[in-house]
Amino acid sequence: DTGGGKTILPNSLAFGKDLKRVKKVFLSHGHYDHTGGLSEVLKGTEKVDVHAHPHVFLDRVAIAKEGEKETKRFVGIPYKKGYLESLGANFRFNTEFIEVEEGVFLTGEVPRWTPFEKPDPRLFSELDGQRCPDLFLDDQSLILDTPRGMILILGCAHSGMINIIHHVVLKMRKEKFHAILGGTHLDFLTPEQLEESIKSLREFEIDQIGVSHCTGMRAAFRLRQEFGDRFFYGCVGTELMI
């Protein structure tokens, strides 16, 4: 993911990361705060493979209700496909679990198994003028298969963090996670749903949990309580030894 667009270039300079060396980009889903920096990345590179689900370009909105008042805000990818291709993007769409290169995998579409991981009621997609709850079929995560165990990198986990973990275990036929990183989208859950997620998380073999973004401080605090030193907050610049 590339963030919202305002920070990826200064952050790359601050940490000495040369964007010209980027050969592949992985987009977890089509929200602006995960795709908005793509144009900046492409401007600093030559032709780059951009891996994503075909639904990454859906029109998406967030709706806030206050009494009778409804406020709609566009939250989809802020660029047209043709514009990004003109900057050098070579889109490689997938819907299935795939191995991108040796030891690097994308989950593809994630089945929804758990009864407690519900869609965010504030988020919708629009097609041909019709609004419907966003199913986030494009929500996918990245897996690195390392000698110390799998590293699962989440975008926002709109599919449900536990659903994603189950899917990865099934597809990889492995159970050991060296780390689970990224946005967990636990922020909007009820206390009961959060506790169900944490209860399920305990059932997996996970060395480290490094959350960020849409996890929220309430959920991050509970994860810290539950997992102690195995938990950390994955801020910009955090390094993980593999």
Describe what this molecule looks like in 3D.
This protein folds into 2 domains: 1-93, no CATH class; 95-119 and 140-242, Metallo-beta-lactamase, Chain A (4-Layer Sandwich), CATH 3.60.15.10. The chain has 7 helices and 14 strands. It has helices spanning 8-14, 32-35, 38-43, 81-86, 161-172, 191-201, 217-227, and strands at 24-26, 48-52, 59-66, 69-74, 89-93, 98-101, 104-106, 123-127, 130-133, 142-146, 149-154, 176-183, 205-212, 231-233. The protein has 242 residues and is α/β, with parallel strands linked by helices. The strands form 3 sheets. Strands 6-7-10-11-12-13-14 form a 7-stranded mixed β-sheet, with helices on one face. Helix 7 (217-227) links the parallel strand 13 and strand 14.
Topology (elements, then pairings):
Elements: H1 8-14, E1 24-26, H2 32-35, H3 38-43, E2 48-52, E3 59-66, E4 69-74, H4 81-86, E5 89-93, E6 98-101, E7 104-106, E8 123-127, E9 130-133, E10 142-146, E11 149-154, H5 161-172, E12 176-183, H6 191-201, E13 205-212, H7 217-227, E14 231-233
Parallel strand pairs: 1-2, 2-5, 11-12, 12-13, 13-14
Antiparallel strand pairs: 3-4, 3-8, 6-7, 7-10, 8-9, 10-11
